[in-house]
Amino acid sequence: MSGAAPPVTLDPAAFRGEIDGQPVGLWTLTGEGGVTVSLCNYGARIVQILAPDRSGRLGDVVLGYDRLAAIQGGQPSMGAFIGRFANRIANGRFVLDGVEHSLSRNAGPNHLHGGTKGSRFRVFQTERLSAAAVRMSLTYADGEEGYPGTLQSSLVYRLDGDTLRLEYEATCDRPTVATFTGHAFFNLAGGGSALDHRVMVNARHVLPIGPGGIPTGEVRPVAGTPFDFTQPQRLGDRIDAKDPQLDVADGYDHTLVIDKEVGTFGLVARVEEPDSGRVLTVSSTEPAAQLYSGNALTGALPRDLGKGGVAFQRRSGFCIEPQGFPDAPNQPQFPSTTLRPGERYQGVIAYRFTTQG
What's this model's pTM, rounded to 2 decimal places? Predict the structure, then answer.
């Protein structure tokens, strides 16, 4: 297996601590499908997924850190569950019901992944439901990061055979906006470059972006572009092609519009790793998914020092992040991300780990 190393055994004691007066720890899910998942409730993040290859050998198929201090000093989105608004909102502002709301700006002039104290930087209250499931809950206060309304949210990580399910919901006491995603960085080889993965995304359209990664508002067909993953393509084959959209993001960091009815659960992507034979199938209820090719992984220390002292190199992991459309509160032609009192936001993301060959 190219680049692979034996999985690191995580020490639960290395994840114990206290942040903002809340206890932090490590939670491990085991089931009957041969997959094991380890989670930290700081950011409700996935820190390890062990999955068998075609020969039955376990490998760690996500990037992450092996202690709490490293998480705090590391890539803030790595493995985290993102809320209360995944991706970007232009200029840190939006108008809802005629009222303008100003948000924190933590990505140049824009708002990213819930802001300076979004869920990536919060401790979730955690309850074990079974050996294969935990519930993690977080309350976002009215006015926090500039958002209206107290938002009550919960997330269940559930290992169902060979599939890790993220089942999440939220309610709010005032009209607000919300969308969530999982931000795991995958490498099905267990190490090395991610560029040899063969990727299929169930999407015939992409959202072009301008400066800062903000969608221009156009919904563009992928046909004839480097964003056409309707048939399996090696991730690295076109990543450095001469294309203005690849240039603006230094690779893939774009939202693809999933070909399914909004709100229904269906196929998002299928990724194959030829050496190990591992296959990741992503399904979700969300209308879109961000494809990210790990362009900002640079091996910088200590930020990019991962499990077992292995540094994350450029494009050594990829993300497929099912979510609502970025900047939807400012772009009424996009599916709405508005959540009103009495409504319940409910979503599912599923990662299935199988093998072929």
Answer: 0.97
